[in-house]
């Protein structure tokens, strides 16, 4: 039996008391570690709505970029500006990040969401509609550690959405999940994007990017090598690096 779908409703623009976070401008971003340049003079500009898929081979800097944008790590050089403002606690409070491996409390399903709501001073009545939306209605009292991989990732999504973020970062959230779980999470992602949340989604899965992307950012060696609308990227990539990546070859 198909699970009931409950719509996700973000805070409307009319009720916000602060300017929108977008556009995002990244200028000359660098990150060094262990004697290496991990992010190397990266430039990027994002605005509007929709889903940006960030792609590239292992070590390209995709996950590091998300952590930099979300303020989890500080750059060695360069600027990250959200609507002209640098990364700060105020900007990151309006964003959420879901990791490849869910980071959950060793408590019940409902306690995981309640913790986020309590920490942010938000009403608890947001919890049950969110759990229903991610297919966890009726599982509120179950320990989170007993959830399957797909269920745990859906709970992580519910926690991330509990704060009604403007920007949602997703770092390979469907890696190692079974096909049914992947499709369930993709359905949630589409609905969240339709509701107006801006998504920045790291993936290695070209088929998934074709299904979800409005635009693609392809990274190599800590730089952006191609940034185009999804249809143009997949149908007529501009760079040899993009053509190699889509063909499953090593990028030059």
Structure commentary:
Helices cover 32% and strands 24% of the residues. The protein is α/β, with parallel strands linked by helices and 252 residues long. The chain folds into 2 domains: 47-74 and 85-94 and 165-252, Rossmann fold; 104-163. Strand 1 and strand 2 (36-46) form a beta hairpin. Helix 3 (109-120) runs parallel beside helix 5. The radius of gyration is 18 Å and the shape is globular. The N and C termini lie far apart (48 Å).
Poorly predicted parts: 1-6, 11-17
Reported by name, the CATH topology of the largest domain is Rossmann fold
CATH superfamily of the largest domain: P-loop containing nucleotide triphosphate hydrolases
Helix coverage percent: 25-40%
Query: What's the average pLDDT?
Result: 91
- Overall domain count: 2
Distance between the termini: 48 Å
Please name the CATH architecture of the largest domain: 3-Layer(aba) Sandwich
User: How do the helices and strands follow one another from N- to C-terminus?
Assistant: EEEHEEHEHHHEHEHEEHH
Provide the structure class: alpha/beta
CATH class of the largest domain, anyone?
Answer: Alpha Beta
Radius of gyration: 18 Å
